[in-house]
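An example makes the point: we let one protein speak, the chain in one-letter code, the fold tokenised, and here it is:
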Amino acid sequence: MIIIAAVLTCMISAQAVEHEEIKRGQKAYGLTVFADDKVEKFDLELVGVLDNFLGPKQDLILAKLTDPRLEQAGVVAGMSGSPVYFNGKLLGSLGYALGTFMKEGYCGITPIAAMREVRDLPRRDPFVAAHCGSAVSSVLPIAAPLSVGGVDSEVLRYFAPIFEKMGFVVAPTATGSGNAEDHSSTDSLKSQSGLKPGDAVSAELVRGDVTVAATGTVTSVDGSHVLAFGHPFLGAGAITLPMAATSILAIIPSFQRSFKLGQVGKKIGTFTQDRLTAMSGELGLAAQILPVKVEVREEEHQPHRYEYEVARDPKLTPELVQLVLASSFARQTDAGVVGTAALSAQVTLVDGNLLELHENVAMDRDLSVPILAALTISRSIDLLWHNDFGPPLVKAMSVKADLSRVNLARRIDVLQVRNSRLAPGENLSLRVGLRTENEPLHFEEISVLMTSPVTAGDYELTVCSANEANQIENRIGGPAKPQSADELIQALRGQRTNGFLYVLLVGRGPSLRVGETLLTKVPLSFATQMISGEGDQRLSHNPESIVLEQNYQLLGVVMGSAQASIHIREHR
């Protein structure tokens, strides 16, 4: 059958089929992989042409699958891109399914002429190219099986709905040796030079100790140029996604949506275009990727290290980073148990500078420490990736996590002030009672020096977590408004973390936020003049000020807050 498929392909004319040639009942055939690497022929019957069905001058050819092997499975996720031939010419590719639970296998064929327009588009940087949306109301692109391997079941249950909303069918697969550079160990996987129409191919989202890849079929190979899928992947326009050879292990039949179960192999090139009618790419071209390294230590055990190559995509990358981090953390602890994670990340920025991030998380019952830890440390990555000032600012990243099965959430329960009336320059003595689950109340002794700009007057003292401190700052100065990439990075360097207890002294007196900077005790005349001026939208004003802020590192995660009134008297 492989020889027959190859001979049929060689006999095909490069000339496109004129739509006037298509009549109801005419026979056509397609090529796809049903198992392993063997390209096989399947039969179709043409129905007609749906003019402008996908949009202006974007027709769709309607056909019915008549091959007995597809009577039970119907249109199979992963067949998208399968080349369809008619009268010795390449008609197009299998691209669309008409609904679900169909009694007959009707499908939509994307005309090859429209696909070749995508092949001829110039290659562009996906982070400066405009987004190319695609909306199809009456038909659905044949779903691409999203092969996912190396992911904990609890983690996959959390992330699967995110991918399914994008139109993927999440399917399990195996990972390779764990080498992010090349984890293929199967001799049958195709080399770059052997790729041909009908072969299975994947757009790779993650490679390494986790595999995430969407599988489709090759429509045509013209030199180093490849056309595949026959419909949009995400409709993202210019992209840079690794292209990988793929073997099909089996077709899994389903009344709702049958799919190909694939094994992702070697990288062979890069997909560069994701358009309404096709994905196109180039063999031998290296894709841009985001290297991610993770080190996880659980209590007294030796650390485990994981490496990943994550696709650089304007939309997907932050979610993929969350997935690989959660998977790494879950391998060292049960995903649903209580516990605490101490996290640190070193982010290499595009300018070569390093950004250090630190955070602690603790979870109660029925929630997942690995998932929360991944979402928490990824929050800053998301801000850097989807910043308002240009392309993503992240070049590479490494994350370390120390996991404990003990819930070290420490809730502020009591605040005792030993000397609530004192003078500037004196120490304020505090006893903070912290309650940890199933343990007696524990007190921390804290001394706070009433240094400048503290002056005589009445103040509100708050002892609190990072989250509570952020809320107080937002109430007084409004949310931070970075106006440049440098200001954003500065804000991330200075962000509060859950492993600290914060002491804030709030008093009367104008404060003024200018971009990321909160100015306290600003003279009223100056604040009024700045606010009444023209232009700068970064300014916000409040009659209160955070006069003093100090922090104290504690073991675990600080939660909650407590308040007291403080009076600072004049010097005698």
